[in-house]
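Training component of the fellowship. As part of building independent skills, the fellow (R.M.) carried out the full modelling exercise for a liganded target. The chosen ligand was NAP. The inputs are recorded below so that the supervisory panel can assess the work.
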Amino acid sequence: MSVILEAKPVVQAIENDLLEEVKNLQALGRIPTLGIIRVGEKPDDLYYENTILKKCQKLGINVQIYPLDRNVSLKEFENILRAVNCDSSVHGILIFRPLPEQLDENRIKDLIEPAKDIDCLHSLNLAKVWEGDTSGFVPCTPAAVMEILKYYQISLEGRNAVVIGRSMVVGKPLSMMLLKANATVTICHSKTRNLPQIARQADILVAALGKAKFIDHTYVTENSIVIDVGINDGGDGKICGDVDYEAVKDKVLSITPVPGGVGSVTTTILLKHVIMACKNTL
Ligand code: NAP
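Fellow's submitted model of the complex:
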């Protein structure tokens, strides 16, 4: 029987710790505060914002939203961002992306105050991930994967981890984090040859390629621990992962579901970072 690596208990365990941390901060007169910069009113952004608001309320985190017009100029955007950077009552900044094309994300990411960069966009924080320096913020999705592995006591030292996908948001930083945890890491991408064969050598197989149900039974063995990072439109009104869950779930040692897996932990990590940022100001 495969073990289903559900997000729910992972989220619960992190939230219990966070509630305690918020209580301690409140006793010191601090209320962790998240600043959200949202451009326009895209349904996805509003949905995510609503999810964050509910979670923040539950955890005792304040939220300050900066709604900007869809046509905001780069200069106006930068002025707002600088003001939020300087506002000592805001501890963490989240910018909803993708941004409209008049706003150059590459330029904007390095304007965020690194100490408030809870989503790890700034080059300084990313560089720390590559250096194995844990003093900065790590990207939330790779951190969610690491939390799931930790919660389910999946050892990494000396084990083979195969990461499919090399984006700067997921694949590359996650590979660095697995390496820091002493896994032997193979990074695969769209030009990788013999992908199923490489994937089958993994103790831990991470699918982060953005292709609905791409990973089937030919990529796994009965010893595979499968972490599905994918969030795709399943075409049937439901979301699905990069792994063909139904085809794979009984053929592996363990697997994260979608929904109810990595994505569910990611938002909790973001809020954990807000609390960390607040604590860092003490
Ligand atoms: P991305 O930027 O599109 O990168 C996809 C990566 O997969 C690229 O490196 C690409 O290789 C590789 N790839 C594409 N097709 C492949 C194939 N057939 N074989 C092997 N590698 C292939 O995607 P992303 O932003 O990293 O996101 C990946 C998935 O995670 C998506 O489903 C996304 O929705 C999901 N996601 C989830 C969360 C969460 O919280 N759970 C957060 C972010 C993203 P090349 O570099 O060669 O093009």
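The panel noted the following from the submitted structure. The pocket of NAP is lined by residues 141, 164-167, 169-171, 188-192, 195, 208-211, 229-232, 242, 262-263, 266 (CB under 6 Å). The first helix runs from residue 8 to 27.
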